[in-house]
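Review form for a predicted model. The reviewer records the input and the model, then writes brief findings.
Reviewer: anonymous (R2)
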Amino acid sequence: MLGTGGITPPPEGYWEAIQAMLKKHDVLLIADEVITGFGRTGSMFGSSIMASNLT
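Model under review:
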C-alpha cells in the first residue's frame, strides 16, 4: 500500500509469500500502519485482520 500516493492492493498470495520468506530467514516484519494504510484495509488497523505467528 502507498501512503499519500493512493492505494495499491497486493496481488493474491503476496502476504503468504512474504510470510514464508520472512519465516525462512527468521525476520520479523514491522509495519507502520499510519503510513501503510490506516483504515484502508477494511479495518482501522490492518494488523487486526492479518495472522501473526510470533512463536
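Findings: The chain has one domain: 1-55.
Further findings: The mean pLDDT is 75.
Recommendation: see findings above.
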